[in-house]
Structures are given as C-alpha cells and as structure tokens.
Amino acid sequence: MHNIFFDNKNHEFSVKEGELPEYSKLDLPISVIAQVTRRCNLSCKFCSESESFTDPSFNDLEQLKDKLSGVKRVYLSGGEPLLRGDMFDIIKLYRRNFDVLGLPTNCTLMSKEVCKKLKGNINYINAGLDGPRAINDALRGDYDGIIEGLTNLRESGLEVSLSSVILKSTLPSLKYVVNIADALGVTKVKMVIPILRGRACGLSPSDFADNGEILKEFEEIKRLKVELGWKPRVKFAFWDKSTEGYALIVYPDQKVYAWPVFDMPESVRYVGDLKTESMQEVWKKYPYKINHVNKYVGLSMHKA
Known about the structure:
By secondary structure, this protein is an alpha/beta fold.
C-alpha cells in the first residue's frame, strides 16, 4: 500500500523512517472495523456500542468481504464476536481475502479449543483488561476468565495485544496491566480514553482523568519499562482534532461511520452504506483521511 507497511511483530502499521505516508495515493482505508455482532456476555461500564442490532447473516458478511477487498487490515469485531456460532466459518472466509485479520474479544470465551481453531487464521487477538482483579471487575468483569483466556492464548502461540481503559480510577493500576502483559507475553498495550457514547454516558465528568494526570502516569510507565525490562509496547492517543474520526466502523447493517466525531450525536458521523456503495466511494467522501492514516501508523500516538 504505497509506503505504508504492516509490522506483523508489533501489530501496527508504519512508514519507512524519515518518510511521511503518501496520503493522496490511497484509494482505500488501511484499516476497517467490521461489526459481526453487537451481542456481548459482559456489560462494561464504558462500552460505546450498547445499542442492539440483529446479527448480519453469513451471506451479508460474505458480500461485505467483497466490498472490503483491497483493505489491508480488517477487524472482525463486536460486541463479542465469539458468541456467533458460525464465527470460525466467518474467519476462514475472511482469511482468504485479507493480509491482516484482527479479532477484538473480551477473552472470556478463549478456551484451548477456541485457540486451536484460531491458530493460523487470525494474525492477532486484541483483548481487554483494565487492571488487577478489583479494578477490572468494577469496570468490565470476569478478571479470572480473561486471565484464563490470555493464558490459553499464550500457550497456543497466538499473538496478543491488550486494550485498557484510562479513567481516574484506573490510572494508578495501568502500570500493573503492563506488568501482567509482560508476564503473559503480550506484544502491545493500547490505553484508551472512553468516549461519551452508549453505556459510557453513565460515567460522570469526575470519572475522567485530565491530560496532565494521564501524561504523568504515562511517563512513570515509560520509566518502569526501562527499569524493570518490561517488553510490551505501550501506546495511547488523546481525543482531539488530530485523532477525530480516525476509525471507520461498519455496523451490522453495513452502514459505515467515522468515530469519534465530537460534535455529532452518538459521537459518530455517517459516511456511507456498503449495501449500495463501494468502499472506494465511501473513502472518497470520508473527511478524516489524514487522521485515519496518522493514527494507524502511530504519528498521533504517545508511545513507550
């Protein structure tokens, strides 16, 4: 994809050192999130996707696969994707068409048998963990189930990244997430500030840490990484004009939205409908191309 490459070891896009992405040469997004379900077996307090949808049929997802042809990376997302009885058939269908296939999951259904079925079909798993048991269970639930799933993934050899929510209550424990990630052989920890959407609208302003508090804790994590030899890469981005609208999300009904968009209802902007348009047509009218690329190649990210 011109001078943008996917680094399989670190689960991220990059450009050659000293170069900037060739934005104008892209006729497709480099990464798309395709929601195969909105159903979930957890009730995370910060979840942005609490609105229910009927699951797309296997035939719907086969047609979507064709519409996404040429996109470098596709996330088969949810909800919790592993709740679908045909999820492994969906993964095998997409595996044949995309260079990079990611699976976001809460990891509570990640049995040894599931890991065996995923091996060789998924490039990497993105799992959620927000802190040690008490912190995680207050926000997400089922710490023990998540750790069991992560342990099964490690034993299977599947590549794993972690996502952790940044709130005032989680800030002191984020360093422990990196420690847990290091012990479990996780490659990357992505820290995410919630957007006021869906169930996250129940959070109060006092639940959110300010930028200074976040940067202070992040600098401490950087220091501990060096001092203690933690291996996972750690990244986060503030939500501002440089990251606005960076993600393209295909809802279960195949409508496409840019997220997060701060001045729009539900923090999303409608971009198009893949039932009636091509991905190239949607990309042409998508107004956040530079933010999309910069976020995914790490130019708008804080890194440790």
